[in-house]
TrEMBL record:
Pfam families: Arginosuc_synth. It comes from Xanthomonas perforans. It comes from the Bacteria. Its EC number is 6.3.4.5. Residues 2-105 form the Arginosuccinate synthase-like N-terminal domain. Keywords: Amino-acid biosynthesis, Arginine biosynthesis, ATP-binding, Cytoplasm, Ligase, Nucleotide-binding. InterPro entries: Arginosuc_syn_N, Arginosuc_synth, Arginosuc_synth_CS, AS_cat/multimer_dom_body, Rossmann-like_a/b/a_fold. PROSITE patterns: ARGININOSUCCIN_SYN_2. GO terms for biological process: argininosuccinate metabolic process; L-arginine biosynthetic process; urea cycle. This is Argininosuccinate synthase. GO terms for molecular function: argininosuccinate synthase activity; ATP binding.
Length: 132
């Protein structure tokens, strides 16, 4: 199931205010923009508890740092089974996006065939672009 959680107040209280007060930045340059990952894990684990499950899933690929942030945060907060379907797909398919698009289209879901060489992450702390 999908649940939308407003993490804005938690990001503001837990990350934005302390960074502003401290006058610090990640690597001395910008706020720690990926701090919201830990709030996502916290909200997801609360939802897992409500559902009575010890399994937690995320859509991180096996290539970036987000998988590490999610996995370590989950492991630090309890004994949960981590399900990462995209990583499993990447073990068997080199063209992950094409595989996902075909899979969804075969099941009646429309998919925009837009692929970018970069990713954009945005939250209350700012915006980052990465990739090549």
């Amino acid at each position: 199931s999908h649940v939308t959680v407003d993490g804005g107040p938690a990001i503001w209280q837990g990350f934005v205010k302390p960074f502003v007060w401290a006058g610090e930045g990640y690597q001395g340059q910008y706020p720690l923009l990926v701090s919201d990952r830990y709030l996502i894990v916290d909200a997801a684990l609360k939802r897992a508890e409500e559902l009575g499950t010890r399994s937690i899933a995320h859509g991180c690929t096996g290539m970036g740092n987000d998988q590490v942030r999610f996995d370590l945060a989950v492991k630090a907060l309890g004994d949960y089974q981590i399900v990462a379907p995209i990583r499993e797909i990447q073990k068997e398919h080199t063209q992950t996006r094409a595989y996902e698009q075909k899979y969804l289209e075969e099941r009646g879901f429309g998919v925009r065939a837009k692929q970018q060489a970069y990713t954009i992450n945005e939250n209350l702390l700012g915006l980052t672009m990465s990739g090549g």
